[in-house]
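Researcher: Going back to the complex we discussed earlier. I've cleaned up the inputs and rechecked each line, so this should be the final set. Can you rerun the prediction on the complete assembly and write out the structure?
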Amino acid sequence: MDAAKKPVTRRNEAIGIALWAAGFAIPAFASSSWVAIAAMFAIFAITALSEDVILGRGGMFDMGHAVYFGIGAYTTAILNTELGVPIFLTVPAAVLLAAGTGTLLAAPLIRLRGDYLLVATIGFNAIFVLAMQNNPGGITGGSDGITGIEAPSLFGIPLFSQSAMFWLDWVVLGLVLFLMRNLDRCEFGRALRYLKQDELAATTLGVDARAVKTLAFAVGAGLAGLAGTLFAVQLSTVSPSSFVFTESVTLFAIVIVGGPGSIPGVLLGTALMFVVPEIFRDFAQYRYFVFGIAMIAVMVLRPQGLWPRRRNGL
Amino acid sequence: MGTFVQQVFNGLTVGGIYALIALGYTMVYGVMRLINFAHGDLCILGAFVGLTLLTGTAASGQPGALVLLLAFAVAIVVIAAAGVVLELVAYRPLRKADRLSAVVSALGASLLIENSIMLIWGPNVHVFPAGLLPDVIWHVAGATITFVQVMIIFASVALMAALYYFVHHTLFGTAIRAVAIDQDAARLMGINVNRIIMTVFIVGPALGAIGGLFIGVYYRQAYFTMGWTYGLYAFIAAILGGIGNIPGAMIGGVLLGLFNAFAAGYLSSSWQDAITFGLLIAILLVRPTGLLGEPVAENA
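Model: Rerun complete. Updated structure for the full complex:
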């Protein structure tokens, strides 16, 4: 039963690690704009993987995930520009604040069944964006957002260049991927999967549904907060328009179109939604038109997702 | 006192529109357990179709009321046809699939329709022509009531009464309710479930097209992202009344319209949306099945 011992899984993991390692060479041959796109891919892959913890693995319909991403980004932006806190020191605050918000919002709502949870999270997203726009206490900068976020510095050396920034994002992506792989095997991950498959049976066997689901929200939101920090640093600016409902829909669609609970599926989904549009830049106005068609087509032809999760494997 | 009466009339007008659109959400949810995210965009597509006819025929010198009736008729037919295509292409193949697949397909359909509007009519705000309807104004207890408001309120009430009669007092309506309660049992009783679902996708979008065109005529403008805004409001109205419950959607629409009008009039207009969503979340926490409850017990 143990997934780790299956030779196919091992082979896939080896391929995955090799691809990730090879990714570090991207700045060696790609133009700086493509390095920036690769950095964005890493950031959105982390966000999509964090949505997958809640939606794909937990089976909870979270359609407001941009909120946690946004809280991470705003936390870093405010701490750095207002108080001059170094970027790396804002990470714990960004992660904890996002995770805390996720827990607080989710705790009363997770007993709601699917569609109602979905609607409530849409509501949270709308309130969050409106709150950022209305600039409470003068700290969020209103519709224009916050500009002038510093580059992070490591051991006193500022990571100014696009390549350095990309490597940082890529390392974090690697860590998150490692975490996601282990999630399948730890007690929490298995409890979550069991709950998704059969909640009644799982609770009968002593799984605390409420605690496990709340923890899933906390983990997913916290990881999204981490990605938010990277996002704020990459753009050196944050504004409410980056965290609107459409972003949450995109993250939701990445997980379902790619394959819920499947790491390669989520990565493939992220690439389709964020990297492919860059290739067809000249047709930017058709972007969401094509997305719409693609979302219907994939669901009708492959309702289980493009790269679905295997039974016990990756 | 004047403000109060004014907000009541503003609220009833907007509430009537919300109710017309909410009926489409609630009917689809009732028979398919699916949130039809594309419904709001269909309604606004109706507003644009109507607008094109209005601007095209406004110069012809025909009387305004006739032009308006024609615009409504064409919008209803086009949007009902679009609703049927949507069901056939995006939803029917997924009826047996996981619910999430249908949700993503619905979101895709929403993006597709919204961006089709943008590509056809452009991203700018379109203004509805003036002078189509009589500029009659009534003064009641210090409030100003326009002809458009009265027309919208009367038309919504009449349409809702007609729908209520159709669903609760005709054989076809009984079949719709039977499918909403139990599809398999309804099929065993000889009901053609596919035909019922198709009917729902004709009636819902047709009412929605009227609602969408009302929005255009009332606010005198249309833009491509409107579908999300008003769709979401109408959807909240459906939840408020108890999604799947047809009288609930009507009551929910009117209540939400009044709530919004008073929130904008007496509280803060820049936080109006947040207040509405706060209300939504409060309802979900306290009484997730809405004011009137769902017509059927949930088994999922």
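Model: Worth noting: The first strand of chain B starts at residue 126 and ends at 127.
Researcher: Good, that matches what I expected from the previous run.
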